[in-house]
Structure formats: C-alpha cells, structure tokens
Design a protein that fits this description.
The complex is a heterodimer. By secondary structure, chain A is mostly helical. Chain A has one domain. Helix content of chain A is 80%, strand content 0%. Chain B has one domain.
C-alpha cells in the first residue's frame, strides 16, 4: 500500500511538472491564436523543435513509467483516484509559474473534483 | 486568462475518450505481463515482458496520440482549467473498467463521480465562455 502511494505520488509530481513545461513550450510557440488549427503539422513540428517541450516529455515519460508500474499493482480505479493531488499541484504551479489566476469558482470546482476523487477512493 | 469555448470543451472531452482508451489498453497490457507485484527488484523483468505485449504498445501509441491532442488544447486553454475539465476521464474510466475489465464500482464511488461532474462545471464557469467575454 505504501509502495503504491509512493509510486502514484512520483507519477503525479513528475506529470504535474511535465505539464507545466509543456504549457510553457506551447505558450512560447509562434503559432498563436487559431493558426495552429489551420496548420496542425506545422504547429506539431514547431512544438517538437523546442527543448522545453522535450524536458516536459522526459518528465511525463518518467511519470508514465511510475504510473504503469502502479497500474500493475492495484485496481485501475484506486490508482486513478489517488491522483487527485495533481489538480491542487497543477493549480498552484500554474498560478505561480504561468500567472493563471485562481478565483473562487476555480478553487471550489477544483476542490470538488478532488473531493470526488477521495470519495471514489474511499468507496 | 483564456476563454473556454464550446469547441475547446468538446476537444477536451475527445481527449478524455482517447485517454480512457489508452489507460484501458495499458491496463490490459500490464495484466497480460502476468505480474501483480512490480517493484525495483523485478522492474527489468516487467519491462522485458511488457516489451512483448502488443496491447501495451498499442496503449502507448494511443497515449502519444493523446499527447498531440493535449498540445492543441494547451494552445487554446489555461492549464489550470484544462486539467480539471479534463477529468471527464475519471467518469469514462470507471464506466469502461466496469464494462471491459469487469471491475466493480461501489455507490460511494458513483457519488464521488457526481462531485467530479459538479467540480468540472464550476471550473468551466470560472473563465469566460465566449469570444470577448469576461
């Protein structure tokens, strides 16, 4: 059980940091606004040429390996519901490093999603 | 603060469906390796067994597709909005786990899922929904 929690926490932290780097990379792309939908290949190529994206990919890949090992140890549902901490982590990291505002609706909604996860885990 | 248009909302739901498929395939793949206690002492053995599981590789391929879909979403939405709104997979996955993996979901878990739906609604409402809205 402790091992599983450790595995999922490693997966969550690496994935959260990976997401942060991905978002940084996407935001730094010259494809802003709607152009990226008109030229998906160009956008994908532009994204893949950014080192910050690859840092994100390596972090997420590490998270994924930890995740896969966790999947082999318990019910898919239980492993997933332990992941609720990621939402808090993402909201806080996005606030401090991406300048995304936290308002009362977002905070309430995020906490509800997390409460839902914890309830689901308890069941 | 980026707005959350209906189009992006649908894209996030599509992303969740692809994510559900990837998770199901990966779980099937891990199960097919026939190892229930994977840790540092046998992780190499697991990677070896996992490497011969086509279902696991299919799961990883779908996961890569999911990655590109996610990149497109990130280009149009705030991370702290896309993440919770993307938790539809927590509703799809238990449903899929019941149907395809024959796992059981208790009433308390279904109540948890209702909380998640409510939470998604709140987060989606925390940012403007239309062009030029505030």
């Amino acid at each position: 059980m402790i091992k599983l929690v450790v595995l999922v926490l490693i997966a969550e932290i690496f994935t959260a940091l990976g997401q942060l780097f991905l978002k940084k990379g996407v935001d730094s792309s010259s494809f802003n606004g709607k152009e990226h939908l008109n030229d998906p290949a160009g956008f994908a190529w532009d994204i893949l040429s950014k080192p910050v994206i690859w840092v994100g990919v390596v972090l997420m890949a590490t998270g994924l390996v930890s995740w896969l090992v966790a999947l082999g140890r318990a019910d898919l549902n239980l492993v997933f519901t332990l992941g609720s901490l990621q939402y808090l982590l993402i909201m806080i990291l996005a606030h401090f490093y991406l300048g995304e505002k936290i308002n009362i609706l977002k905070l309430t909604g995020t906490l509800l999603v997390m409460a839902g996860m914890i309830l689901a885990a308890a069941g | 603060m980026k707005k959350l248009t209906f189009r992006i909302f649908l894209l996030i739901i599509a992303n969740d469906l692809v994510d559900t498929l990837a998770q199901l395939l990966m779980k099937k793949g891990v199960l097919s390796a026939g190892m229930t206690d994977i840790w540092t002492h046998n992780v190499i053995e697991f990677m070896h067994k996992g490497a011969v599981s086509p279902v696991l590789w299919l799961g990883i391929a779908v996961y890569v597709l999911n990655f590109f879909l996610w990149i497109f979403i990130l280009a149009r939405a705030d991370l702290s909005v896309a993440m919770p709104v993307g938790s539809f997979c927590y509703i799809f996955i238990p449903m899929a786990a019941v149907i395809f993996l024959h796992e059981s979901v208790s009433p308390v878990r279904w109540i948890g899922i209702l909380f998640i739906i409510l939470g998604i609604h709140f987060v989606a409402r925390s940012v403007p929904a239309r062009e030029g809205g505030h």
